[in-house]
Amino acid sequence: MRDPKADAYREGLGFPGEPPFTRGIHPTMYRARLWTMRQYAGFGTAKETNRRFKYLFAHGNEGLSVAFDLPTQIGYDSDAPMARGEVGRVGVAISTVEDMDILLDGLPLDRVSTSMTINATAAILLALYLAVGEARGVARESLRGTVQNDILKEYIARSTYIYPPAPSIRLALDVIEFCSREVPRWNAISVSGYHIREAGATAAQEIGFTLANGIAYLEAAVSRGLDVDTIAPQISFFFNAHIDLLEEIAKFRAARRLWATIMRERFHATKAESLELRFHAQTAGVALTAQQPENNAVRVAIQALAAVLGGAQSLHTNSMDEALSLPSEKAVRVAVRTQQILAHESGVANTVDPVGGSFAIESLTDRLESEAVGLIRETDRRGGMLKAIETGWVQRQIADSAYRVQVELERGERTVVGVNAYAEGDERVPVTKTDPRLEPERIRQVRAFRAKRRQGEVDSHLHRLEDEARSDANLVPAILDSVQAKATLGEISDVLRTVFGTYKPRQEV
């Protein structure tokens, strides 16, 4: 005999592991398997970063998450004039396959999951990773990880773009198509709301604009002739875990439910796996304060709790001193331990969707979903995400939200402990500084790498890449061949700059 209460429950909230996945994408969630604990790291040199990765693994970290320096992100080798003063400052400098090999030294590529936060040069960094794996005898089918590869959010929020939007989207799709054929366990794109939120977006804007970006990529993929049910399982998302606990939990639930609806109704996906919104979360860098930095450990714990209660598949917790410098080992250890305490001591992982059915959570979920739907509809009305970005409309929406928050802070209508309330005198906090010898040493390494290769072979592969860039060919195989022939990241990027040009942002009059 059927239980009418159970039927009503199914029709309302549904169950975890079932579309539209409001309550999570797995029936048993963390009771069967905890989220992947990642720590984002990148320090000047590949050797130094490799040492930090091994330190993190020794303290219970489960996945690599690589931060690259600014020259690597925008396609310059460490010895390029445009890289001067920025080498190794905000992440690891990777110019060559030799650098990538050092970065991954001693790490089991067939067992570890690697996330690379890289966008404009995503195809090149993926090729470098594949080249190292192949040299070590690791089959592509065994490699697991993610390349962010979300170029649209760069035009919206972060600005580490190189080429104009159209060829940039082409490169992103080349990676998606290549991975669907060659690297099936790799997430070929991680559509990022994180940076949109860091730029000042509201929770609803983070959902709406992120999913609108996802729609733009899928529409472009379908136009290319790719099958939605083939590529959708390799698309993941990256969200910000901010400080408003209940709103953030609801945000993750709303995003999952809305994406399932979009995939079913807009793209006619037939596999349940295609409807799943799988996401990595990172605690909010913008919420960290330089004042009283130990308070950040509390903020991070609250934000991490929101991500866990919201059903994240993996999580990075920021270190308490990141508002001041690259994180210290002590701060990183506290950040890792925060996740471990949540997993093993708090009890929140013992119940599937412990917040499901809460009036506050469910009403917030409904509100955020409704607001996000409105933003997606307005984006469609304006011709889609690419046009909405090119006209500056998306950027203005986010800038207006950021301005409103700043006004609230300055008026005292919004409290940040230790900043505009409960403030104390100046504090001296030790900070990690970049070694001034790093840049000249990196320049020497890159030039030594070039000196010992076969220049004719490199030139041949770069000429082939240029020819294929002028055609409709998928560029990942040519890029992979080029890095295996020891072409550098900067040389490959320069070839593509020659063909595609560089992006000049719209100037408001």
Description:
This protein is of the alpha/beta class. The chain has a single domain, classed as Methylmalonyl-CoA mutase (TIM Barrel), CATH 3.20.20. The chain contains 21 helices and nine strands. Strands 5-4-3-2-1-9-8-7-6 form a nine-stranded parallel beta sheet. Strand 3, helix 5 and strand 4 form a beta-alpha-beta unit. Helix 2 runs parallel beside helix 4 and helix 19 runs antiparallel to helix 20. The chain starts with a helix and ends in a 9-residue tail after the last helix.
Question: How confident is the prediction overall: mean pLDDT?
Answer: 93
Question: Unreliable runs, pLDDT <50, ≥5 residues?
Answer: none
**Oligomeric nature of the chains:** single chain
- Percent strand: 5-15%
Radius of gyration: 23 Å
**Order of H and E elements:** HEHEHHEHEHHEEHHHEHHEHEHHHHHHHH
Number of helices: 21
For the record, the CATH class is Alpha Beta
Which architecture per CATH?
Alpha-Beta Barrel
Assign the CATH superfamily: Methylmalonyl-CoA mutase
CATH topology: TIM Barrel
List the helices and strands and how they pair.
Blueprint: H1 4-12, E1 36-41, H2 46-58, E2 63-67, H3 70-73, H4 97-103, E3 113-117, H5 122-135, E4 144-147, H6 152-158, H7 165-182, E5 186-187, E6 189-192, H8 194-198, H9 203-224, H10 228-231, E7 235-241, H11 245-265, H12 272-275, E8 279-283, H13 295-309, E9 314-316, H14 329-344, H15 359-381, H16 385-390, H17 393-411, H18 438-451, H19 455-469, H20 476-484, H21 489-500
Parallel strand pairs: 1-2, 1-9, 2-3, 3-4, 4-5, 6-7, 7-8, 8-9
